[in-house]
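User: I'm putting together notes for a lab meeting next week and I want to include a structural view of one of the chains we've been expressing. I don't have a solved structure, so I'd like a prediction I can at least talk through. The sequence is below, exactly as it appears in our construct file.
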Amino acid sequence: MKQIVVEKICKDMEIQKNLELEVNIADVETDDEINEAEQNKVRKAREIARIKRDRDDRDATVKEREEIERVRNMTEEERREWERRNPKPTRAQKQKWRLMQKYYHKGAFFQDDPDCQNGMKSMIQ
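Assistant: Thanks for the context. Below is the predicted structure for the 125-residue chain, given as C-alpha cells.
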C-alpha cells in the first residue's frame, strides 16, 4: 500500500514538472500591441464623437435657456402670438381603464401560452 502511494506521488510530481517545462511565456498570445495604430484611430474617433455630442447637448441647453428667457421678456400679446405660432406638442391621450382592470391581468412569468384567450385581452374586448 505504501509503495502505491509513493509511486502515485512520484508520478504526480513528474507530471507537474513536465507541465511547468511545457508552459512558456511566448506561448501566451497577447495581441494588445499589434493593432495599436488602429486602436488609436478608433479611440480618437470615439472621443471626437463624444466631444461633438457633448457640445451639441450644451448648445441645445443654451438655446433652450435663451428661448425661455426671450418668452419671459415678451409682453402678453407677443406671448400669445408666439404660442399661436409655436404650439406645445400634445401628448397622446391615455386609454381609460375600467374598474380594477390594472389588477386583473394574466401575469408575465407564469404563463403556459402567453397569447391565451382567457387573459387580459379578453377582458378588454
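A couple of points you could mention at the meeting. The two ends are 80 Å apart (CA to CA). Helices lie at 2-22, 36-72, 76-85, 120-124.

User: Perfect, that's what I needed.
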